[in-house]
Amino acid sequence: MKKSIQKLMIYLLALLMCGLVFSITAMAEVLPSVTYCTHVQNEGWQNYVSNGAMSGTEGKSYRLEGIKIKLVSQGYDLGLAYQTHIQNIGWEADTGRGWKTSDTVSGTEGLSYRLEAIQIKLTGADADQFELYYQVHAQNIGWMGWAKNGESAGTAGYGYRLEGIRIKIVPKGSAAPGSTSNAFVQPSAVEQLLNKMNGNWIYQNSYGKNIFRITKTSPTTGHLVYEQYVGGGDTMEFDFWINGINPDGTTTLYMDMDSVIDYGITPNFSTIPANTLMDQPNSIIFFKAMFTRL
Prior knowledge:
mainly beta, 8-stranded antiparallel barrel, 5-stranded antiparallel beta sheet, 24 strands, elongated
C-alpha cells in the first residue's frame, strides 16, 4: 500500500512538472513578435525577417530606401508607429508624411533617397509590458548601439546612409540585446550651419556681383574666399570660426586677421553677420544681402 502511494505521488509530481513546462512553453509562444523588411538600393524589397535578424546588407555600401514593420501581437492590445529621417525630406513626422503604422512604407521608392535614421515605438494599452529595441548599421560607422521605445537610431546632418537594421521585442525590464551607447549621432548646431555654408554663394545687383566661396575645415571653422566684381575682380581670403548660433538663427563669422590674404580688397571688417535660413538650403544672408547657392 505504502509503495502504491509513493508511486502515485511520483506520478502526480511528474504530471505537475510536465504541466509547468507546458505553461512556460505556452507563455513563450504567445509573446508578441516583430517582423520587418527593407527596400535596398539595387535589390528592391527583401523578404521579411523577424526578432533581431538583420534586414538590409552589410559590406555592400547599399542604402536603405524604405522599411515596413508589422507586429504579431498574440492577443495583446499592441500596435506600432514608426518614422524615418529621409534624405532631402528629414523626419517624416515634421512633414505631411507623418508616422507610419503596421506594414506601411516609411521612406521612399524610386527616388534613390537614403534613410538616415529611424524611430519606432509600441502603442496600445499593453505597450508598457514590453520593450522594443532596434539597432542600425550606418555608413562610416557600422553597427551602432541599440535604441528603444521611440528613441532615434542612426544619424542626422552627416548625409550617412542606413545599410541594415535589427528589431527585437522583449518583456519589460529585460536586458538590452547589446550596448545602448552611440545609438544616434548628429552634428552640433554650428557644424550643421557650416555643412550648409560649405560651397559657393552669389549676390548680384545692378552694380555687380559678390561671391563667397566657403570651405568647412572643422566642426567650428572654415576658410572663406570673398570675390568682388564691382569695377574689377578683387579678392580676399581668410580663415574664420563660429562660436555659436542665436535663437533666431543668426550667427557671426569671426575672421582670423592673421590669415588674411588681400588681392585688391582691404578688409574693413573683422566679423561677418549671417542668417543661416536653415529651412532654405539654397539661400543665406551675409551683411543683410541675400546670397543664393551657385
